[in-house]
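Entry 14: structure prediction run for Cystatin like 1. Input pasted below.
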Amino acid sequence: MGVGCWRNPLLLLAALVLVARLGHFQRWEGFQETSTSMKNMNSTLKFFIETYNNASNDTYLFQVDKLLRSRMQLTTGVEYMVTVKISRTKCKRNGTRNHSCPIQNKKNLKKSFICDFLVYTVPWMNYYQLWNNSCLEA
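Run finished. Output tokens:
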């Protein structure tokens, strides 16, 4: 059953009908609102903030302060379109990575951003890729 089998118009028509029927039953609805529970988004948020901190030249690390909006779309994996507030912590970049870094409270060191980002993930393979992000000072 090589390339020559597609020369039969009836076989080609049957294949097209099958593809059309399968597409009818499996509809992709686009992005859907999801819970704004940080617990449900933990691994995606962790990936984003690690990526952000690695790209940042700030002396201090940032952490997700608040999950503002979360939307999800199923594709070949899962796409998350997320809006978060991130804030500068008291932990320095070159120090030991502490999981509980308090948010900076000194007025001259306080800094926060509102970030929108799009992450593609295949969670069952522990695969994450940041497709887009933008942050504006809050």
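Notes: The mean pLDDT is 83. Will compare against the previous run tomorrow.
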